[in-house]
Amino acid sequence: MLMREVAASVGHDDWGSRSFVEPLTLLVDSCRASNRMSLVGWQVLRSVARRHLRNRLDIRGYLQRRPEAAQRPLGSPLVITGLPRTGTSLLHNLLAQDPRHRFLRLWEALHPLPPDNGHGLDEATLVHKAEQWLGRLFELAPDFATVHPLAPHGPEECDRLLQNAFASQHFMDMFDAPAYADWFCRCSLEDAYADYALQLRVLTREEDADRRWVLKSPGHMGHLDALLTTMPDAVVLHCHRDPGEAVPSYASLIDTVRHPHTDEVSPLEVGTQALQRCETALSRALETRAATAGRTFVDVSYPSLVADPVATVADVYQRLGLSLEPAVEGQMRRWLTENPRDQGGRHRYDPERFGLPPERVRAAFTDYRERYASLLEERL
Fold first, then answer.
1. CA–CA separation, 101 vs 208, rounded Å?
2. Does the pLDDT at position 361 exceed 60?
3. Band of the pLDDT at 346, cuts 50, 70, 90?
4. Can you name the residues that pair with 212 across neighbouring β-strands?
5. How far is CA 369 from its chain centroid?
6. Are 239 and 305 in contact (CB under 8 A)?
7. In this structure, what DSSP letter does residue 164 have?
8. Residue from 310, 306, 282, 277 nearest 372 by CA
9. Which residue in 348, 355, 143, 145 sits closest to 270, CA to CA?
10. Please, how many CA atoms are within 13 Å of residue 6, restricted to the half-sphere of its CB?
11. 274-298 exposure pattern, b = at least 16 Cβ within 10 A, e = fewer
């Protein structure tokens, strides 16, 4: 019914691959089965589904007019990932200061088409729509800006593109949908990543020819196999933080985004979900790394990144065979000055509230902590 409504409003029903129908159906059914969604939650889910369905049709319509866009090269993107709350946003923002890099802006992520694409939507209109979207988000979840700052022109997670295939970590955090979450953590997402890469091609403009995409999402962790199958020349920047710190922080994030959509949120259930999801994603990521030894992976230490961000980025550049130009370094330092840590408020949470004392979490990641001890700076 919803697909027919959206198709009627857009004026065509060329959905392309229908691989998105299964996860969309599973998401809705899983939310219904948990029986915890609030009225606001159902309204938000319907609105979210309509937006992503419309994006799919708009992209197909654009490709009917510009079929060559599907062949635009993506080069060798830098893909930042790691468990949630491991410094991926900080690293992303710093790399976005380099004019040689092309990053996904929030206003693009919400409507992944070039401005003036046949629908009369220029950049100013799309930015205004992003501002309105942010206003609604912060009204529903006032604490979200403290956990994850956002701005219309700022770098945004490329997970927004995977949401158009209804294959996103964001949905299992936002809604209490256990069956969907179990599917997402264990499935193969090759079709979703094909859609993802297609959207990046659509967004790649002529002036981007000499610029390198810098992408970021913790959601890639459990699906590096699909990402690297789709974009074999990608370079993965893997951020590392002591799980005893990262996992409770992730649980707090889930708690923040789920409360507005759910009648009853159990902190202990959220803690267990955060722990299990991180375990599964990290295990799958390390399996992919072991199976793709020839791939380029660059490991980034969260303690080092927080202690000296520019020096850590300079080290990343060196390992990539790149030079950090003085002007770019200066821009990075200006960004750090203008965006001090905790400027939106300090992210405060109690790990015990989620049943996640450090010893419980660290026990679940013993092998990982031993392998990457030098990057975690923890006591084993």
1. 9
2. yes
3. low
4. 101
5. 24
6. yes
7. T
8. 282
9. 355
10. 19
11. bbebbbbbbebbbebbeebeeeeeb
Q: What is the structure's pLDDT at 293? A: 74
DSSP 141: -
Both tokens of residue 109?
A: 């992520």
Which CATH number characterizes residue 278's domain? 3.40.50.300
Element (H, E) at 102: strand 101-103
What's the one-letter identity of residue 343? Answer: Q
Contact by Cβ (8 Å): 286, 123: no
Which residues, 6+ apart, have CB-to-CB distance to 289 below 8 Å?
A: 224, 238, 295, 297
Angle, helices 309-319/88-95, rounded to nearest 10 degrees: 70
Chain centre distance of CA 95: 16
- The phi, psi pair for 300, rounded to 5°, reads -125, 125
Which amino acid would we find at residue 86? T
CA distance from start to end of the chain = 55
Question: At 87, is the secondary structure helix, strand, or coil?
Answer: coil
Question: What value, to the nearest 5°, has the Cα angle with vertex 133 and ends 90 and 80?
Answer: 25
The mean of the pLDDT values for the chain is: 92
Among the listed residues 181, 186, 189, the one whose alpha carbon sits nearest the alpha carbon of residue 30: 181
In 3D space, the residue among 124, 194, 184, 179 whose CA is nearest the CA of residue 153 turns out to be: 124
**Residue 6 CA to its chain's centroid (Å):** 25
What's the length of the chain? Answer: 380
Cα-flanking dihedrals φ and ψ of residue 214, to 5°? -120, 115
pLDDT at 379 over 50: no
Which candidate, 58, 230, 84, places its Cα nearest to that of 157? 84
Angle between helices 39-65 and 190-203 (to 10 degrees): 60
Contact of 55 with 112, CB cutoff 8 Å: yes
Cα distance between residue 129 and residue 215, in whole Å: 22
Interacting residues of 59 by C-beta distance below 8 A, sequence separation 6+: 16, 112, 113, 164, 198, 199, 202
Range of the domain at 131: 2-344+353-376
Give CA–CA dist 50/56, Å, rounded: 10
Among 48, 77, 372, 23, residue whose Cα is nearest residue 216: 77
Number of domains in the chain: 1
The pLDDT of residue 118 is 61
What tokens appear for 232 in the block?
């074999």
